[in-house]
Write a structure and sequence with these properties.
heterodimer; A: GROEL, domain 2; GroEL; about 35% helix; B: about 625 residues; six-stranded mixed beta sheet; 23 helices; 12 strands; GroEL-like_apical_dom_sf (chain A); MKKS (chain A)
């Protein structure tokens, strides 16, 4: 588990990474970039960091540090991106037979073509060549002699972020090279973490960033990665719909008390519309409120009491180990989300759970908006959608009238 | 005696089937959860899906289920009712301690009491489903009909919402009310490609989107504004060095290099040609090479590849597009086989990226797509099946209108016309649609029937016999014959024996009617499921039968089930010997033959439903 400083550090990093993916200049359609998570297992969580651009791992330390990169006249690094194999193997997609006469070596032909490509790349002042698959050693050597940085075995996952970041179109043919498919980068450098070495590609406009995530424990690392991805997703949802709910169980209890209040005051015509009786409606509403409250109760793991106040309808947790007293205000300090303190007398009562009797409730008020630090918030879209889907699934199960087991 | 114990067994099987579907019957019924040993679960209230999903062992039970399914496939409704009714009839017959008299009594009951009661007695109690001018069935009436239909298939919360959605969808796909029947036919056939399902979202998120949603992602996406031209290809665009059966000989280094370079340049030239013709979207049914995608990106052409054949067929139907063959002829000519699309963009459905493209339609159908959302996949499947059934059912409603008008226009005698038309209207539920049958018969009863057939009777058998078998195409074939006859018989029948005389008198008048009906309807009307006439037809009608056979292309379906030898023979036989009108003695003899035939079936263990009652 993470301690507080680690949580704070990661929070800052995730936010930073997310801000990197938001484009600065938008012409027509704003598209969020991508955050690539780079695993480094064996370091402390506090060593994690965020870098703009992409990191491509290089096994060899053959590249000198600092790198000398060939630049064009506008001080940019030209990038060529290849998505076909440049290993000189004749990966022919042909279906028929190819007969080769004696004395002709197709591999030599292929290699010659590759070297021709190399010459063209050098003459086009390309500074960096990245290939999704393998590059032939001769070609690699040739390009290195001409001061072109070569990275191969980049893999399929990096192709899309690379082309998005550099503006280059992945080249699919070694026979026809069109100069319009090159891209550009601002800088290329070398980074090292733990025992891994990366080539760091820095673009002009950051839309792609890399989050280097460290954790001592390998299995815990997977969970940490999942948590970071979920956090990014929640941030994206919040950009789409900029609303947040109060967390810590407070929204659930508030909603429950509001529904209880409202369900007592519905008119008869609305029951006719819904085709049910008042009692039926109140039974269902009561059941729903109890289920919301049970969600709030599940947040409590240390066995203490859970209270709700009748003024704001928020959720208050009492630490365990205290005898039950009648004056709750001595034991509670802040509600679940943190927006309400115990300064006023809020008329607390125990949150009942499944077996209490229905409660008559006045309308809960909205807390006065104070700018507070450390409010616990929940994602609106996720929670709303979750509630709706849960209700529909419950409806689905209730609608099941019988089960047929087919044993044939 | 053997027949009686058979009857008991059959009644039991039918009762078991009825028990399986009874819980889902009607608006107050609930969903069934069908669990297979493999662990698959099916959530449904639809009788047809339930029956198709059950793996039944006894062949008679399979046949019962197949009958119900094929009936439901044709009408869009009524599978559960069918099965429950069947179980009731069989148990009643068993209780009546049936003997020889039972089969005759049943037939007489059908001929004399039931048909007349349904045709005339019910007529007074029927209301029009779509009141007002039929051609402009307004949204409110349509929604009410849909809500009633979906009430038997969905839970109370969902039916109103889905009815509203379906109504809106119909309205947007066919803004002109006159084109609605035609559009409904297309919807019924192509609904699988016209909707997309997203699991994990609430049902309220379901909506109608303009254009089509293709289930693939872009291989290359180049955003383009405004109208764009789209081209369809069915072959790889990169020229190949060699093909299966072709040998490419490399005898010089230069030659090989030149060939590869030529290939690359040719692909580039093709893309350039597309660009110069303002083609911005390439739809491919096969996977294209990387080189093609690369050049497409360079020249600003978006590419969607690996489209399924159904999607291609739908696009061709909507746009009238034919595939573009770049290497067929002169590559420098104008590209005329292009369709116009108003927009083309990626669409995120749940976690899948799809292509959302809006084609301009050349037919009456305005392409719209339905996005169905639900908590789990099972719910989406259920909704989709319900909507598909709704379209089939709606087709019936609109069909009635056409026939009624056409009947009146034909200027038949008032009585007959009225009876014929009323017959149709009362039997709205029972009309068969050929397109549906031909499309659906493959799926519907295939699974149920695995009977082996070794009988080779060449008699022209009852519609019931045919119906109990797989090919509903045959059914409709024969209904052509039985249709006009039933009317004739219905009008003045007292005993079966008299039929023949009446037939002899009236064949010509009815012939034209049949012929006309043939021309006018693409489908034939099955008037009554339970009719058991030996299909006596006049000689003049045999010609129609032949044309019916050929036109319906029955043979296609029949190959699949070895049982349907009869239709084949029927086809051949009607060419060889004209079918003559049978007198009553011949009919009785025919029935005796049928009996023997049946007894053979019983012994062989492959029973036909109706026969085995005897």
């Amino acid at each position: 588990m993470l301690n507080k400083p680690e949580v704070d550090h990661l929070t800052t990093l995730i936010l930073k990474a997310f801000m990197f993916t938001v484009p600065c200049h938008v012409e027509t359609n704003a598209v969020l970039g991508k955050c690539v998570i780079v695993p480094v297992k064996g370091r402390r969580v506090a060593d994690s960091t965020v870098l703009p651009g992409l990191l491509i791992e290089t096994p060899e330390i053959h590249l000198a540090n600092p790198l000398t990169v060939k630049r064009t006249c506008s001080n940019l690094v030209k990038v060529a991106l290849f998505c076909v194999s440049m290993a000189g193997d004749l990966s022919n997609p042909e279906e028929g037979t190819i007969t080769v006469h004696h004395g002709i070596s197709l591999e030599m032909l292929e290699l010659n073509q590759l070297l021709n490509i190399g010459k063209q790349l050098v003459s086009d002042e390309v500074g960096l060549v990245v290939c999704q698959k393998v590059i032939h050693p001769s070609l690699k050597q040739y390009l290195k002699e001409n001061h072109v940085i070569v990275l191969d075995r980049a893999g399929l996952c990096l192709m899309e972020p690379l082309s998005q970041m550099t503006g280059s179109k992945p080249i699919a043919s070694i026979h026809l090279l069109s100069p319009s498919c090159y891209g550009s980068l601002k800088d290329v450098s070398i980074e090292s973490f733990a025992s891994k070495h990366f080539v760091h590609l820095i673009p002009k406009d950051t839309v792609v960033c890399s989050l280097i995530l460290c954790n001592r424990n390998e299995t815990a690392w997977d969970e940490l990665k999942r948590a970071c991805e979920t956090a990014e997703h929640v941030l994206q949802l919040t950009i789409k719909e900029p609303l947040a709910l109060l967390g810590g169980g407070c929204t659930e209890t508030h909603l429950a008390s509001y529904i209880r209040h409202k369900s007592c005051s519905l008119s008869a015509s609305s029951f006719k519309d819904m085709d049910c009786s008042r009692t039926q409606y109140q039974l269902v509403a009561d059941g729903f409120c109890r289920s919301l409250e049970s969600v709030a109760c599940s947040l409590n793991h240390d066995g203490g009491e859970i209270l709700t106040d009748t003024v704001y309808g928020h959720c208050w947790f009492v630490p365990s180990g205290f005898p039950s007293v009648s004056n709750w205000s001595d034991l509670v300090s802040k509600c679940g989300c943190g927006i309400n303190g115990n300064t006023e007398n809020l008329n607390w009562r125990l949150l009942q759970g499944q077996f209490g009797s229905p409660v008559i409730q006045g309308c809960p008020e909205a807390p006065s908006v104070k700018v507070m630090d450390f409010l616990t918030l929940d994602c609106f879209v996720a929670k709303c959608s979750g509630l709706q889907v849960a209700l529909e699934t419950a409806n689905l199960i209730l609608d099941l009238s019988y089960v047929i087991e087919d044993q044939n | 005696m053997a027949a009686r114990s058979e009857l008991g067994r059959l009644a039991q099987e039918a009762a078991a089937l009825a028990g399986a579907v009874r819980g889902a019957l009607g608006p107050r019924g609930g969903r069934a959860l069908l669990v297979r040993p493999t662990g698959e679960a099916l959530l449904t209230r639809d009788g047809r899906r339930l029956l198709e999903a059950l793996s039944l062992e006894p062949p008679t039970a399979r046949m019962m289920a197949a009958c119900a399914c094929s009936h439901s496939a044709a009408t869009g409704d009524g599978a559960k009712t069918f099965v429950v009714l069947l179980a009731g009839v069989l148990s009643g017959l068993r209780a009546a301690a049936g003997g020889g008299g039972l089969r005759w009594a049943l037939r007489a009951f059908e001929a004399q009491v039931l048909e007349r009661a349904v045709a005339q007695g019910l007529r007074g109690h029927l209301l029009s489903a779509l009141p007002g001018r039929q051609a402009e069935a307004d949204g409110g009436a349509l929604e009410a009909v849909l809500e009633a239909y979906l009430g038997g298939r969905l839970g109370p919360g969902e039916r109103r919402r889905l009815a509203r959605l379906c109504c809106e969808y119909c309205r947007r796909c066919a803004p002109a009310a006159a084109s609605r029947p035609q559009v409904l036919r297309l919807l019924g056939r192509r609904f699988a490609e016209l909707h997309a399902a997203v699991a994990g979202l609430p049902v309220a998120s379901s909506r109608v989107l303009p254009g089509l949603v293709l289930r693939r992602d872009f291989a290359a996406y180049c955003p383009a504004g405004g109208d764009l031209r789209a081209v369809l290809v069915t072959e790889p665009l990169r020229p190949a060095l060699s093909a299966p059966g072709v040998e490419f000989v490399v005898d010089s280094e230069g030659g090989y290099q030149a060939s590869l370079r030529w290939i690359s340049r040719r692909t580039e030239a093709l893309m350039k040609h597309l660009q110069s013709n303002n083609v911005k979207l390439l739809l491919s049914s096969v996977k294209q090479e990387e080189v093609v995608i690369y050049h497409a990106k360079l020249y600003g052409v978006s590419v969607v590849e690996c489209l399924s054949s159904e999607e291609i067929a739908l696009i061709c139907e909507i746009t009238g597009l034919s595939p573009y063959t770049p290497f067929g002829g002169n590559t420098d000519r104008e590209i005329t086989e292009a369709a116009v699309a108003t927009f083309c963009q990626p669409l995120l459905l749940g976690s899948k990226r799809c292509v959302h493209v809006g084609f301009t339609s050349v037919c009456a159908f305005q392409p719209h797509c339905l996005i169905l959302c639900g908590p789990v996949d099972g719910v989406n499947e259920q909704h989709a099946a319900a909507l598909q059934g709704a379209f089939t059912m709606l087709q019936q409603l609109f069909k009635t209108v056409d026939q009624r008008e056409r009947c009146k226009a034909e200027g038949e005698s008032q009585n007959e016309a009225a009876d014929v038309c009323s017959w149709h209207s009362s039997a709205t539920e029972q009309q068969l649609v050929i397109e549906n049958i031909v499309c659906n018969s493959n799926q519907v009863s295939e699974r149920q029937l695995k009977m082996h057939r070794d009988e080779t009777e060449t008699q022209i058998v009852d519609p019931d016999l045919q119906r109990s078998e797989n090919s509903t195409g045959v059914q409709t074939n024969l209904q052509v014959l039985s249709n006009p006859l039933s009317h004739i018989k219905e009008l003045n029948v007292s005993t079966e024996g008299n039929d023949s005389s009446r037939d002899v008198q009236k064949p010509h008048a009815k012939c034209e009617h049949v012929g006309d009906m043939h021309e006018n309807y693409k489908s034939d009307s099955l008037v009554d499921n339970q009719k058991n006439y030996s299909t006596a037809a006049s000689a003049a009608q045999s010609a129609n039968i032949v044309t019916a056979c050929e036109r319906l292309d029955v043979g296609k379906d029949l190959e699949k089930t070895s049982c349907n030898i009869v239709p084949f023979k029927h086809k051949k036989s009607c060419a060889q010997r004209p079918i003559v009108l049978l007198s009553s003695e011949k009919k009785r003899k025919k029935k005796a033959d049928q009996l023997r035939f049946v007894e053979n079936q019983v012994v062989n263990g492959t029973n036909f439903l109706e026969k085995s009652i005897y």
